[in-house]
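Re: beginner question about structure tokens

> Can someone show what the tokenized structure looks like for a real chain? I only ever see the sequence side.

Sure, here's an example I had lying around. Input first:
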Amino acid sequence: MALTYRALALLLTYPSADLKTLGRDAMAAIREEGLLPGTIERSLNRLVDHLMASDLYDLQEAYVQLFDRTRSLSLNLYEHVHGESRDRGPAMVALLELYRGKGLELSANELPDYLPVFLEFLSTLPDAEASSLLGEAAHVLEAMSERLKKRDSRYRSVFAALACLAGDAADQEALAALLQEPDIDPDDLEALDKIWEETVVTFGPEETGCPKADAMLRTMNAEPMAPRRAPAAGGLSL
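And the corresponding structure tokens:
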């Protein structure tokens, strides 16, 4: 069980007074466990320095702009795979069952695919199991890392750390499909309107899910996971 996952979860949460208080402790835990290379530790430390030195309201505004208003950087993992399709519901239920099978119950306002929640869960598992589960999301994490790199965001260091901890490299076909998705500036209203205009919405029994994720989904095991089933068999359905 690695505290590094919990520390990274803290760094990815909405900035708060608690983060200001615990940020240095999170960095100390990462250093003590020594699971990450020195270059990534130093990048994480720069992120922590920024979080500690900046005005809390400025941090909150930047966080909302980055992760809440930018769909391609959503911290809800299934947003990148299933979007708003009907496949997302069963996937969320399967993930909840995985959590419950390991003794974790979420509060009513927590979504199971929210990345900080997922990382908290991984921190309770044996290292090999946690690494294997994280590897199932490697293509999503790497796509987000590339988008954060384009924005010169310090948060990219967290995703570099997660790529290092993941048991498997990102599936390149799935990664390419994600990177082809629009990466729209939430302030670019004209571009947002164009995306909505080009989106075809269908209803009824012929709907099979998110058509834009077809290339990805061909490589994934989408079967729901029953409680206590071994996660290596595809617990994230990503």
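Each token stands for a local structural state, so reading them left to right follows the chain. The chain has one domain: 3-233.
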